[in-house]
From TrEMBL:
Organism for this UniProt entry: Nitratireductor aquimarinus
Annotated GO MF terms: ATP binding
Classification via Pfam families: ABC_tran (PF00005)
Lineage: Bacteria, Pseudomonadati, Pseudomonadota, Alphaproteobacteria, Hyphomicrobiales
CDD domains: ABC_Carb_Monos_I, ABC_Carb_Monos_II
Sorted UniProt keywords: ATP-binding, Nucleotide-binding, Repeat, Sugar transport, Transport
The name this protein goes by in its record: Sugar ABC transporter ATP-binding protein
Tagged with keyword ATP-binding: yes
Length: 501
């Protein structure tokens, strides 16, 4: 019997279409898996069900009745609970308060019933007692817990809603094997009790261990649904890839045409840090090395560690034959390393300041400028801005007067006034338009042809497949496979990203 049905659901954010056509049928007493690449629309679909995102079109039926999920409270009233991929815990509150947050027990209609709160929380803590660790207690503050324990608290919070429909958006990403096994035991018990569960995972072994059916979403559209018992991991990946098994759509960019030097520009040996482990590779002068895999598998953390923000905990990196000092970004900059983040609002632009001040701080740092005339700085900045086809009215205008794409061009241009030896690109095109992306990748290839060594992480597979000479696929914080030449296909990229880590 169908418990929940979504038909033709869509959602756009301005010009960005997050979900073109989302269809899903969830049966009573079923674990239904959603799978798709980064940005395919899985999380958007689930947030629509949970009321945190309102659809632009489409129908949502619950028990055969059309419903409007106007917000999280409405979802709760309809019997829908969700585990969010981005944890929604109150850091400075206790474990018990977080678990019971959706429905705090009250006394006298106003005051929190502390005894009932603790009793309810301990019931869910006990479910994970053997795998959670002694520190996870009802009265422990959430900010004193490890990452895996915090994730368990978020899971308990979803379970405590006692909702007939439960949605789990990548709930196992920070859990160890024993914790995952225990969680799956609990989910099987809920399924046997008639609960309906939507489960998003990027691990193929988990999908086949817990799912009854799997629905594949690709490029914002539901492609199809299969019974887990009647399919294979290879068939699921083929459905995710579609007909584009080779290089991605040619309109994005032309494949690299340059020949890399044999000289090693950057050598990384057994580098380990927060979010990644035992990573080794070499980048040659004139080479674009891609970092692929699902979002959050250690790619960004690796690039930040090479830039000293924060430093790695073990291993070594060398520029040519000189040891790379990763104690701070200042040290990395002094050795010719540049880092560009896709999160320009946090790691890029200097808000409220003129374009000139945003484009020249690295030049000032590298040349130890204490005082400088704006005219001289403008002479240095303009060629770099022109190389990126940056559109702006004047260097004295605020950075906030520019579009997102042009703001990102400013962030990139600041590194090109005094060209670095190593360019680390951390999802640099996130949130910018196609025209700006085209300009950026044309420049990246030109810089590579001039001998720059480039390490590129992108959450968009097409950008890697069309621009990187080689791709290191990350899975679980480590490199699971290297793809080069004819091996650079969507199928191989997805297979390495989704296989058991």
């Amino acid at each position: 019997m169908t418990k929940l049905k979504l038909s033709g659901v869509s959602k756009a954010y301005g010009a960005t279409l997050a979900l073109r056509r989302g269809d899903l049928e969830l049966d009573t007493g079923e674990v239904h898996v959603l799978i798709g690449a980064n940005g395919s629309g899985k999380s958007t679909l689930c947030k629509i069900v949970a009321g945190s995102v309102r659809p632009d079109a489409g129908d949502v039926l619950l028990d055969g009745r059309a419903v409007t999920v106007s917000g999280p409270r409405a979802a709760q009233a309809l019997g829908i609970g969700i585990f969010y991929q981005e944890l929604s815990l109150a850091d400075h509150r206790s474990v018990a308060e977080n678990i019971c947050l959706p429905d705090l027990p009250k006394q006298s209609g106003f005051f929190i019933d502390r005894a009932a709160l603790r009793q309810k929380a301990e019931r869910y803590i006990a479910l994970f007692e053997a795998v959670a660790g002694a520190e996870l207690r009802a009265d422990t503050n959430v900010d004193d817990l490890r990452a895996d324990q915090r994730q368990l608290v978020e899971i308990m919070k979803a379970l405590a809603t006692e909702a007939p429909v439960l949605i789990f958006d990548e709930p196992t990403s920070a859990l160890d094997r024993a914790q995952v096994d225990r969680f799956f035991e609990i989910l099987r018990g809920l399924r046997n009790d008639g609960r309906s569960i939507v489960f998003i995972s990027h691990r193929m072994d988990e999908i086949f261990a817990i799912g009854d059916r799997v629905t594949v979403i690709r490029d914002g559209e539901t492609i199809g649904t299969m019974a887990i018992a009647e399919t294979t991991p290879e068939a699921v990946i083929h459905m995710m890839v579609g007909e584009q098994e080779e290089l991605a759509a040619p309109q994005q960019a032309a494949p690299p045409s340059h020949a890399a030097s044999t000289d090693a520009a950057l050598t990384v040996e057994n580098l380990t840090g927060a979010g990644f482990r035992d990573v080794s590779f070499t980048v040659r002068r004139g080479e674009i090395l891609g970092l692929g895999g699902l979002h959050g598998q250690g790619q960004s953390a690796l690039l930040k560690a090479l830039f000293g923000a924060p430093p790695p905990s073990a291993g070594e990196a060398r520029i040519a034959r000189e040891r790379l000092r990763t104690d701070s970004p200042r040290s990395a900059i002094a050795q010719g390393v540049a880092y560009v983040s896709g999160d320009r609002s946090r790691d890029g632009v200097i808000t409220g300041r003129p374009i000139l001040e945003n484009v020249t701080p690295i030049h000032a740092l590298r040349n130890r400028l204490v005082l400088a005339r704006p005219g001289r700085l403008a002479e240095k900045a303009l060629p770099a801005l022109k190389a990126l086809n940056t559109k702006f009215a004047g260097l004295s205008h605020s950075i906030g007067s520019l579009s997102g794409g042009n703001q990102q061009k400013i962030v990139i241009a600041r590194w090109l006034i005094d060209k670095p030896d190593i360019l680390l690109l951390d999802d640099p095109t996130k949130g910018i338009d196609l025209s700006a992306k085209t300009d950026l990748f044309a420049l990246i290839r030109r810089l590579a042809e001039e001998g720059l060594a480039i390490v590129l992480y992108s959450s968009e597979d097409a950008e890697l497949l069309n621009n990187a000479d080689r791709i290191l696929v990350f899975n679980g914080g480590a490199v699971s496979r290297e793809l080069s030449g004819a091996e650079r296909t969507r199928y191989n990229l997805y297979q390495a990203a989704y296989e058991a880590a």
